[in-house]
Specification:
Strands 1-2-3-4 form a four-stranded antiparallel sheet, with helices on one face. It is of the alpha+beta class and 121 residues long. It has helices at residues 39-44, 53-64, 72-86; strands spanning 2-13, 26-36, 92-98, 112-118. It has one domain (2-118): GTP cyclohydrolase I, C-terminal domain/NADPH-dependent 7-cyano-7-deazaguanine reductase, N-terminal domain (GTP Cyclohydrolase I, domain 2, 2-Layer Sandwich), CATH 3.30.1130.
Length: 121
């Protein structure tokens, strides 16, 4: 299966379980990987035969910067659902949501979730 990916999309928003996380914006980073057949796009060299990366970015941005959610799992789930709904040619999507500034006492480089959702499942 072919893939389109967007990595390192960075947004500021107020997702989190703790009260201050829902009041003070923090950094979130998202990655999206779409699985689909890109053969027609490669052969025809036409945007209409693929998924426009800018449209994917806008879906991710709308969710990441949208209404506050307590869990980044919920952020990832909504992104995946919206991408699958918007692009019928996408067979599956893998979404990663990173919360690099999570309120954890200790040293770490990143924390996040990764989900994979398939069309029709």
């Amino acid at each position: 299966m072919d893939r389109i990916f967007l990595r390192g999309m960075t947004f500021s928003s107020c997702h989190g379980v703790l009260a201050h996380e829902r009041e003070i914006p923090q950094r979130f980073v998202a990655d999206a990987e779409l699985l689909l057949d890109l053969r027609a796009a490669g052969v025809r060299d036409e945007l209409a035969a693929t998924v426009n990366y800018a449209d994917v970015y806008e879906i991710v941005r709308a969710v990441a910067e949208g209404p506050s959610k307590r869990l980044i799992e919920a952020v990832a789930e909504e992104i995946a659902a919206r991408i699958l709904a918007a692009f019928p040619t996408v067979r599956a999507v893998r979404i990663r949501v990173h919360k690099p500034d999570a309120p954890i006492h200790g040293l770490f480089s990143d924390v996040g979730v990764c989900i994979t959702r398939h069309r029709g499942k």
